[in-house]
Amino acid sequence: MNGQSGFRLASILQTIGSENILVDEGWYNQDKHEYFLKNDKIFSKEIEGYIRFPRKAKLFTPKNNLTTNEWYTYNLKEIEKFLEIKINQKYFIKNMSNGDEPFLIPSKLIPTFSNNHLQYAITWFVMSFAFFVLFLVYLKKNK
Questions:
Q1: Which of 15, 50, 93, 143 could disulfide-link to 19, CB 3.0 to 4.6 Å?
Q2: Strands 20-29 and 6-14
């Protein structure tokens, strides 16, 4: 985050109905990594967050490494296999609540709207130009 090395913390939320859901708790700096490796606290609290659907890994994203517990994408099937518990396979939750650790930075809701007006304008201009050229060719052949 902002040019610093760090990790995203994920945990399991068990609902009242005993469903397990993956929760992205937020980002922390690399120098706090030992704290989370040794931390085995179990919390019972409400969280505020939003639902995200897992995305496929991009071309240059490294593969998740289950042996070293290094995760680059939220592949819920792999996470379920690693944790050896059944988790919800449709979505995970991005936590926006502040936790007990002040150095854990929760996710922020950043709407991502598609804003490709220039791309759309260029596409339609090129298509209209191509149809105009085809129309001229048609007129020339039928004279």
A1: 15
A2: antiparallel
| pLDDT, tens digit (0-9, with 9 covering 90-100), for 90-116 | 888 888 887 777 788 887 777 677 778
**91 and 125 belong to one structural domain:** no
Q: Quick one: 132 and 63 in the same domain?
A: no
Backbone dihedral angles phi then psi of residue 131, each to the nearest 5 degrees: -65, -35
| Domain hosting residue 41, numbered range | 6-112
40 burial (CB, 10 Å; 0-12 / 13-18 / 19+) is exposed
To the question of pTM greater than 0.85 for the whole model, the response is: no
Is the separation of the CB atoms in 26 and 2 below 8 Å? no
| Contact present, 22 and 74 (Cβ < 8 Å) | yes
Handedness of CA 134, 139, 140, 141 (dihedral sign): positive
